[in-house]
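Something for you to look into today, if you have time. Could you write out one complete protein record for me, on any chain you like? The space below this message is yours for that.
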Amino acid sequence: MHDISQGKILVTGGSGLIGSAIIARLNELGHTNILVTDKLGTDLRYKNLVPLKFAEYMEYEDFDRARESDPAQFADIKTIFHLGACSATTEKDCTYLIHNNYEYTKKLAASALENGARFVYASSAATYGNGENGMDDEGDILPLKPLNMYGYSKHLFDLHALRNGYLDKITGIKYFNVFGPNENHKAHMVSMVFRAFNQIRETGGVKLFKSYKPEYADGCQMRDFLGAKEAAAITVHLAQNEEATGLVNVGAGKARTWLELVRPIFAAMGVPEKIEFIDMPESLRAQYQYFTQAKIDKLTRLGGAQYLVPLEESVTDYVKNYLIPDKHLGE
């Protein structure tokens, strides 16, 4: 058992969707000795931090410089949740992704291991590509072929960790399609729940992509959806479990259709269902995933599945308790 109350906790990417949810979960458990790092920039992600309790905030570049010049000042960090990354699957600047997602993670992981800190980092289900080689967190990762540069930047670190023998000491979380409070800042990368809520509020209906595979009807493309609060609770649980090493899928373990995702939104808003199917942009068709489903046998063995809730319950909570009243986690 890793005691996260011993020493300071570092959360990188702490103002993001999952990062802020992890801080909120830590606060629920009574932990506030937290150093948060991120790059707040010019959007509204700072609002995700306002209701949360933590000891200190640093811009990640300032933290990195300070850590490299005087690592001893951060020797009291004994738990690291590394969520900081560019998560845009449409990002085309490969050099930026390599520096931001791969090289930075390499440095932070090496530093954590040297300091004896528990290191839990965000990998991604995007590393599985189109799923032709399976979505098994206990399988061989060498054949995996991510469909975009974001997924590849995450896969590169997984491979680095494998080559250097890190995976029996650290934990890489392969998050599946996470949605929930505190994603307002994500622009075109917001979840379909957030997007659909706003479409319904503005137009009374939702637009979904048509299917281009005959085995999937329109709206019946399938994803493994997971609420951010569940993802955070699972992540903190895995950090505390020293047996939870290597790569771990964090998803619901059950694929659901886009129709099943949006229908509870209409219900929570008290609006009649109105769904329109539209053409998918040509640029997305070649890399579009029609089916994702986490294999969660390992997660279940590690006790993480206890935090899963039905999709309809998670969507309803998000809409009624956060989107409609425009609230953030911790408020």
User: Anything to note?
Assistant: The chain has a mean pLDDT of 95. The longest helix spans residues 94-115.
